[in-house]
Specification:
This protein is mainly α. The protein has 21 helices and no strands. The radius of gyration is 31 Å and the shape is elongated.
Length: 407
């Protein structure tokens, strides 16, 4: 197949399932709402062939539709259904002939161009496949399946940007189809990859290239490498907004708090409106025990961008430092309902229990601490299970090395 977009055997099997469900829906529609072009009712052979098709008796269905065609050669739906049966049987050349005949008789027959394109795709005739599926999208622009297949064919042709456009349309039309989102993600990944490759080709030592490498290292949790790349980017573009904030986040990830604080402060000198730098600087102030400064910075960030991650948890900690236990309690109560990070959630329950105790709400304090302990025990259990799985997967490693399985 041309291009780099290859379909695995497993995914090819899922395609078969997708096709089967799609053509079943089409032939049921034809069987129940047939627009018979002649004055007479559909011949009995058509209904019998349709029943055989529904039951999966493809050879019987093929013979039935062939009989209908001999009796009524200008019946486009019979040619279409025979094409569907032959496509399912893997007789692709015969299926192509049937779909083309159906389209010659009825050029806008819903599904005919789509399945013609799918069958041409099976035969690795990508240009013909693209032409056919594109006609289906033109005739039926609200058909998500047609847009998905246009994207699949475009990917096979190494046309990542065209594929992304088609799959974006498919996703908007059917936001619950996993196949669509799989191909859409692949298309956008290739667009991104191609864009970055072009960047490297234009200038392999630009600050943008170093930033891309830094972001890739950060996502892979190689924070030391990310710091090196961010520092290289800053050397080339010292006043570029965003770089110092991102560098500060990497410093914080490796627990270099002083360096992180300096980077966030530098970012605010360059861009006083950088909300993330302001918020993260406030969180560091709280960690260092300065509740007043932390609260000021965090609330300033909150006014500009409500809903920042762990906002209530950090404000609760700031209020605790200031002795405002009632205000802290309100923040922690919201945090335990909204935070999804297990470590933060665990600590939020602990802090909430402490705040309740200061307010003499002893029953609430005991319940909060019990929840904290349960979360802590669950985390320890998961860690032990992870260690045991690691030991099972690495039986030849020493006990000393087994105590630190990868996260």
């Amino acid at each position: 197949m041309k291009g780099s977009y290859l379909i695995s055997r497993a995914f090819y099997a899922s395609f078969r399932g997708f096709i089967s469900s799609l053509w079943i829906g089409i032939f049921l529609l034809l069987a129940t709402a047939l627009n018979w072009s002649q004055a007479t009712a559909p011949p009995p052979q058509f209904e019998q062939a349709t029943a055989a098709m529904r039951a999966g008796n493809l050879d019987v269905a093929a013979m039935g539709f062939a009989a209908v065609i001999r009796q009524s050669p200008s019946f486009p739906e019979a040619h279409f259904n025979l094409g569907l049966v032959n496509e399912e049987r893997g007789r692709y050349e015969e299926a192509v002939a049937s779909f083309e005949k159906a389209l010659a008789l009825k050029p806008h027959l819903h599904g005919a161009n789509l399945f013609l394109g799918i069958t041409e795709f099976r035969l690795n005739r990508l240009e013909k496949a693209h032409t056919a599926v594109a006609k289906e999208t033109a005739n039926y622009p609200k058909d998500a399946s047609a847009w998905m297949w246009l994207g699949v064919v475009s990917l096979a042709q190494d046309k990542a940007e065209d594929a992304a456009d088609a799959l974006d349309k498919a996703a908007r039309l059917n936001p619950t189809d996993q196949d669509i989102f799989y191909h859409r993600g692949r298309a956008h990944l290739l667009v991104s990859k191609n864009s970055y490759a072009h960047m490297f080709k234009l200038n392999s030592d630009s600050w943008l290239v170093h930033r891309v490498l830094a972001q890739a290292n950060s996502e892979a949790e190689r924070h030391t490498d990310a710091i090196t790349e961010y520092e290289a980017a800053i050397k080339l573009a010292p006043a570029q907004p965003g770089l110092h904030e991102e560098l500060g986040s990497e410093y914080r990830a490796v627990n270099k708090i002083e360096e992180a604080e300096a980077a966030f402060q530098k970012e605010l000198e360059i861009d006083p409106y950088n909300v993330l730098a302001k918020y993260k600087l406030g969180a560091i102030a709280v960690e260092k025990g300065d509740g007043a400064k932390g609260k000021e910075l965090i609330e300033a960030a909150q006014r500009e961008k409500p809903g920042l991650v762990h906002m209530d948890y950090n404000l609760g900690r700031a209020e605790m430092l200031l002795g405002n236990d009632a205000a802290a309690t309100s923040h922690f109560e919201r945090s335990v309902k909204t935070d999804t990070d297990p470590e933060v959630l665990e600590q939020a329950w602990y802090q909430l229990g402490t705040a309740y105790r200061r307010l003499r709400r002893m029953d609430d304090a005991r319940n909060a601490m019990a929840t904290y302990q349960q979360l802590k025990d669950d985390a320890a259990k998961r860690s032990q299970q992870s260690l045991e799985r690691y030991r099972a997967d690495h039986p030849n490693q020493s006990d000393e090395s087994q105590t630190s399985p990868p996260q």
